[in-house]
Design brief:
Blueprint lengths: L1 H15 L2 H7 L12 E5 L4 E6 L2 E7 L21 E9 L7 E4 L4 H10 L8 E3 L9 H4 L9 E2 L2 H10 L5 E5 L1
C-alpha cells in the first residue's frame, strides 16, 4: 500500500516534468526519455516495443485479451486487434494505471463487423494494472486477462506514457 501511495504522489511530478519535453523546449539534444515514433506489439511473443527510426528503444512484456488468437472480430470476443492503428488519446483516470487509447476500430474493422451484423467493439487501450487489483501484481503479467487490451506493468506504463505522443502509429502483429 505504501508503494502505491508513493507512486500516486510522484506520478503528477513525472507527468508534469517530462524531461524530454522540457529538454526539447530548451533546444537541447540529450533525451532522458527519447520519444518513440512507433510502437510494435508482437502478440505471440507477448512483447511491446517502443521504436524510433526503426531502432528498438525499449521492450516490455505484455498480457493480452483472454482469447488472444486471431484478430478482434466483435465486441466481447476478448481478442486483441491486429493491424495498424494510432495512439489517439490518453486517460490518466482510467480504472487501470494510466491508459493510452488505440484507434480500433478502423474503417475496415467497422465494415467487417457491420457485414456480420455485430458491433466491432471499441475502447482498446494500452494500460497498466487495475487500480483495485484482485490478485498480486505478478499474476496479471503471467496470463492473458484483459477484454482485448494490451496490459503492461505500472512501471512500464510510466515509460510508455512519457515516450509516446498522441498520433504515434502502433502495429499489432499476430
Amino acid at each position: 500500500m505504501k508503494a502505491w501511495c508513493c507512486l500516486l504522489v510522484l506520478l503528477p511530478v513525472l507527468l508534469a516534468a517530462n524531461p524530454v519535453r522540457a529538454d526539447r523546449a530548451q533546444g537541447g539534444v540529450a533525451e532522458a526519455y527519447p520519444m518513440a515514433d512507433e510502437l510494435v506489439v508482437f502478440k505471440a511473443e507477448r512483447r511491446l516495443e517502443l521504436r524510433r527510426g526503426g531502432e528498438v528503444l525499449r521492450s516490455f512484456p505484455i498480457a493480452l485479451g483472454g482469447s488472444p488468437e486471431g484478430h478482434k472480430a466483435q465486441e466481447g470476443d476478448q481478442r486483441t486487434p491486429e493491424g495498424r492503428y494510432l495512439i489517439e488519446g490518453r486517460n490518466p483516470n482510467s480504472a487501470f494505471f494510466l491508459a493510452l487509447r488505440v484507434s480500433y476500430p478502423n474503417a475496415t474493422d467497422a465494415e467487417r463487423a457491420r457485414a456480420r451484423g455485430v458491433s466491432p467493439g471499441n475502447n482498446i487501450m494500452i494500460h497498466g494494472l487495475p487500480n483495485e487489483p484482485e490478485h498480486p501484481s505478478r499474476q496479471y503479467l503471467q496470463a492473458d486477462w484483459t477484454d482485448g487490451c494490451i496490459a503492461v506493468s505500472n512501471a512500464a506504463m510510466i515509460d510508455i506514457w512519457l515516450s509516446v505522443e498522441d498520433g504515434t502509429p502502433i502495429t499489432i502483429l499476430p
